[in-house]
């Protein structure tokens, strides 16, 4: 039957020291010069914190505060006999050397009167204590001292400590003030004026950081990181949702043209090669496309019944098309071919034949604002052109015929304009002797401004249901087509028919 112990009703509190205490005196010094351990025994003040100084010799170090925690631990006192002092060679079975200590007739009384304290310097480790009990069966004494119901623990982070050891002013000030000697207090003096020396002594702030609770840095692998086999037989970790690096070229209007993409994107979609092959075929048909027109061309190829070998799946990822486009062409940041996809190696600025690929950009609708409760993803989807479609749905949205236009884009090319009036203007226009890379390209500025004004007016009329005839643009047609002198105004005013918009319609235009 196991022995029973009576636990005395004692008030015991515990303070868990974060260090491994090898010297009790030095361990007590970390609690400051005047530790108030009596206040810890008061269970009615659980919010009390016990400061501990990790550098007690540094007066500028900031203490770490404890936090109160309820506990239910038993303090157990185990007393074993003193060592006999006899020795033998370690690891051998030779007899013990030295005088034999005769055991007392009352071993319990002998061990109780012992004054050696062993709960320090790792002397009370469970493995060591168990060995001592096995070696002194019937000769040790055990008793329950009490129950610990209040424990102060240190689980916060220590503040940064800026060493002031080499600061002569602060070290001298601390030696005098903290000495407790009134005569040394009088020796403290502070120089007046401004210190202009190169090596100024600056006292560190009282605290460096206000964060005392550690962050939760528990490691967890990203579920979207997958191991992918390489061609050399190895593998690499790939984040399937990470944004891929752009390999295309977005050049300025005066920059030299690139001949190839900067790299090849790491896309492992099985459809990528098929899309890349079809896009290369499109660039052979026509060297310059808008993004909308080449997407429409992909749709027509996907549904082409006459050439099944060229067909591609009707449902494509936007990411696949986005990165495949970068492999077949580059883009201009501005100028007459802004936002157009140009085949690598082809420079539309070098020859007047590239004028039919110039772009016209119109902002005809204001930015849509979602209603209350609508998700931002739904607002974003309304402005994104998908690849999936049918032959009767949006495949001609890049063409302007003067009767209808699609709002799924804002960029048109001269070669995609089927309106009879505008088509005649562009076809009969005389090219410039040199390319105006900052403005009208290979067209004269007068004709370019005239065509833009007529096309925008026709789009406004379609938008608000107005009917216009070609005769209504007679004043615009009569405007000069040539390029004004260099010292003239940059903008050219073109007279267009009055659409008689209402206030509500003007509100839609202005946004």
Automatic annotation (TrEMBL):
Q: Where is the protein localized?
A: Nucleus
- Tell me the Gene Ontology biological-process terms attached to this UniProt entry: transcription initiation at RNA polymerase III promoter
Alphabetically sorted, this entry's keywords are: DNA-binding, Nucleus, Transcription
The record's InterPro entries line, in alphabetical order, gives: TF_IIIC_su-5_HTH, TF_IIIC_Tfc1/Sfc1, Tfc1/Sfc1_N, TFIIIC_tauA_Sfc1
Q: Does the keyword Kinase feature in the UniProt annotation?
A: no
Output this protein's name: RNA polymerase III transcription factor IIIC subunit-domain-containing protein
Recorded hits in Pfam families, A to Z, give: Tau95, Tau95_N
- Indicate whether Nucleus appears among the record's keywords: yes
Domain (Transcription factor IIIC subunit Tfc1/Sfc1 triple barrel) spans: 14-163
Q: Gene3D superfamilies annotated for this entry? A: TFIIIC, subcomplex tauA, subunit Sfc1, barrel domain
Span of domain Transcription factor IIIC subunit 5 HTH: 202-362
Q: Which residues does the annotated region (Disordered) include?
A: 80-112
Return one GO MF term. Answer: RNA polymerase III type 1 promoter sequence-specific DNA binding
Q: Which GO terms describe its cellular component?
A: nucleus; transcription factor TFIIIC complex
Which domain of life does this protein belong to? Answer: Eukaryota
């Amino acid at each position: 039957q196991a022995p029973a112990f009576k636990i005395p009703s004692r008030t015991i509190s515990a303070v868990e020291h974060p260090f491994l205490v090898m010297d009790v005196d030095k361990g007590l010094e970390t609690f400051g010069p005047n530790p108030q351990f009596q206040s810890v025994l008061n269970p009615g003040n659980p919010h009390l914190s016990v400061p501990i100084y990790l550098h007690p010799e540094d007066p500028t170090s900031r203490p770490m505060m404890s936090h109160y925690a309820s506990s239910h631990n038993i303090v157990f006192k185990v007393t074993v006999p003193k060592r006999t002092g006899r020795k033998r060679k370690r690891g051998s079975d030779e007899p013990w050397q030295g005088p034999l200590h005769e055991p007392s007739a009352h071993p319990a009384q002998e061990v109780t009167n012992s004054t050696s304290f062993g709960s320090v310097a790792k002397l009370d480790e469970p493995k060591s204590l168990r060995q001592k009990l096995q070696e002194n069966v019937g000769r040790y004494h055990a008793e329950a001292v009490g129950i610990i119901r209040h424990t102060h623990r240190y689980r916060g982070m220590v503040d940064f400590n800026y060493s002031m050891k080499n600061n002569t002013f602060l070290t001298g000030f601390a030696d005098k003030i903290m000495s407790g000697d009134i005569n040394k207090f009088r020796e403290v003096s502070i120089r007046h004026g401004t210190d202009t020396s190169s090596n100024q002594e600056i006292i560190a702030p009282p605290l460096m950081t206000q964060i005392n609770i550690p962050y939760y840095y528990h490691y967890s692998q990203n579920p979207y990181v997958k191991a992918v086999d390489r061609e050399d037989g190895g593998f690499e970790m790939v984040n399937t949702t990470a944004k891929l690096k752009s390999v295309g070229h977005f050049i300025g209007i005066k920059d030299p043209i690139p001949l190839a993409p900067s790299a090849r994107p790491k896309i492992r979609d099985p459809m990528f090669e098929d899309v890349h092959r079809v896009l290369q075929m499109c660039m052979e048909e026509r060297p310059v496309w808008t993004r909308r027109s080449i997407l429409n061309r992909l749709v027509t190829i996907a549904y082409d019944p006459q050439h099944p070998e060229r067909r591609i799946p009707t449902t494509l990822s936007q990411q696949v098309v986005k990165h495949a486009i970068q492999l077949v062409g580059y883009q201009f940041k501005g100028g007459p071919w802004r936002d157009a996809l140009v085949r690598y190696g082809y420079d539309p600025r070098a020859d007047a034949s590239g004028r039919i690929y110039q772009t016209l950009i119109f902002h005809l609708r204001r930015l849509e604002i979602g209603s209350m409760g609508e998700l931002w993803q739904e607002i974003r989807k309304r402005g994104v052109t998908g690849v999936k479609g049918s032959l009767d749905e949006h495949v001609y949205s890049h063409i302007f015929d003067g009767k209808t236009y699609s709002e799924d884009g804002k960029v048109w090319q001269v070669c995609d304009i089927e309106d009879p009036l505008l088509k005649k203007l562009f076809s009969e226009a005389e090219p410039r002797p040199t390319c105006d890379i900052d403005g009208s390209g290979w067209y004269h500025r007068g004709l370019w401004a005239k065509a833009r004004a007529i096309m925008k007016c026709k789009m406004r009329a379609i938008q608000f249901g107005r009917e216009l005839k070609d005769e209504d643009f007679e004043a615009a047609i009569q405007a000069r087509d040539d390029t004004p002198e260099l010292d003239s105004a940059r903008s050219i005013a073109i007279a267009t028919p009055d659409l008689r918009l209402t206030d509500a319609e003007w509100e839609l235009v202005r946004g």
